[in-house]
Amino acid sequence: MTANIRTSKLEQILDLAKKNGADSTEVIQKSWAENPVSFENNKLKTLESNQSTGISIRLIKNNRIGSSSSTDPDALESLVISAIESSEFGPEATFEFAKEALNGRDAVNRVSTETTSLPLENLVEKGTNVIESLKTFHKDLLVSGGFDLGFGETIYLNSNSVYGKKVKSIYSTSFSTLLVKDEDFLGIYEGNSNLENFPDEKEISNKILEKLNYSKENLILETKKYNIIFTPRAVASIFGEILAVVLNGKVIQQKISPLADKLGKELFDKRFSFIEDPGIGIKAASFDDEGIKTTKKILVDKGIINSFYFDLSSASKAMPRHGSTGNGFKGSLSQPPSPNLTSLVIEGGKIKYNDMINNTKEGILVDQLLGAGQSNTLAGEFNVGIDIGFKIKDGRIQGRVKNCMIAGNIFQVLKNISEISKEQEWIYGSMLFPAFLIENLMVAGK
Fold this sequence. Notes:
The chain has 446 residues and is an alpha+beta fold. Helices cover 21% and strands 39% of the residues. It has 2 domains: 3-211, PmbA/TldD fold (2-Layer Sandwich); 217-446, no CATH class. The protein is globular and about 75 Å long.
């Protein structure tokens, strides 16, 4: 099916909506194909590809919003009728659909889903080599993971003649290991994604092996304050996640964010900047799911709360004069757009990551966390378990720490960052973060 045929189908939906009384309409079609080469518990699991396509419509009729979605590409009339009917009970329309023209097709990594093929035999061999390499650590080690090449296409069209198209490929490599000894579970995960090629499986394997070797000895911590080095993964799990919530335009609109009245206020360390850059990473996008152009935003600028991020609905209620920031994305085809971020960046500091560790007389290196999403994020609080963490003594990693909890408040912690690593690391292909050194954080041992 060519792009012209698909666009024609979206135009048919707009015409049907208008004939059924819609004042304005937007329609979005998303297609996604996955080609995984996956292993489970040391064995090849699947080489099967899968694909999906769906259409979502949102319209305004009599100042009420109606919506509908379908994975049946031919069910155009029922799709429109369903949206028209839902508008009778839908929320009030406090915004208009996009009017500013887009630049047509997104320039980010155009890849044809018809011509790109996977080197299956090569990837199976690479995955098998990773498993064999990791199993040298212990004969009972279970390894899962593999490779995935995904292709996505998004076409947006509305009754204001705003049209845009995005085509993107995402290459992913990830592996996890599990070792069970009596009541001791050691699970380690490493992986990444990008838009160009498969992340190096040997590098990922080496990172896992390093953590496995650090974990040979389990150490017991006493409850007290420690100097904590948060790896980029831990920075993402705590600080990235909480900041994404409290800067969210919907939370700002509801006036339940502690930052709602803090624009222009310096709340954090002057070395700390929190940036959304839709031009990089696997979440790169030139426009959102509401046909609004995306822009680079410095959400926190050298410690100062500089910007929030909005979709059309939250912007119309919280900051109507400013409008959407191009952050209206759909969590799934059937969900309405809501404020979501693309790729995130925290700027690096001046100290090398290894020097952070070498300079630590006594502390903890924190990598994987448990329960990060269960903290009181709106208050900026975190109270999480350390899943993978290591004791540092005189600049050396001694062993794994278990059954520990770490707690704090980001509004206090980010005022007092001791060091930020010079190196930044891509986390899940969408967050480019450094490591943090935070001194004197309370850790509850067991």
